[in-house]
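Give me structure tokens for this 179-residue protein.
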Amino acid sequence: MNVPVSGGPGLASVDDLRALGFEGFLTVSQLRDEGVEGVPVEPGTWVVLREGSSSVPRFLARSTAAPWRGQDPTLTADALGSRWVANAYVLYVGVAPGTGVRHQLQQRIKRFLRFGSGRNVAHWGGRFVWQLAGASSLRIAWRVTSAADARQAADETLAAFSDRHGMQPFANDTEEVEA
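Here you go.
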């Protein structure tokens, strides 16, 4: 069942996201240590979450993510600070549109984690996450959808976030979700 995000519960807690159909809520560290075998090999949308603090985090001087296609993912602390969304729980919204194995939730999250570990993989979205001190304690949750509904579900999640905070999540580069 595809639960609409807009007009529904907020995006401020695990309970809010569970009500929208998200599951998982595993830390980056858990996913790296245990692998991503528990992440569905299906289309959907996923989010990166920061729990326990509403304060501005400490930004690393260099991103742990690898340069990709000649682009350095590192921003200055001032640039990152200007992107920071006060009191936001969701830091990034990603999509796995489901056309082929590389675009399933498991592979998109796996590539995101590898990218953040400094490996050169095809994943540029959410790169600002990898300049946060303590990124290994961030949580990742996902929501399975049909391939036809994945992008719309991600767009609705972004719209709900924007309605609540007046801007896009910290690590989303544009209004469009990066696949």
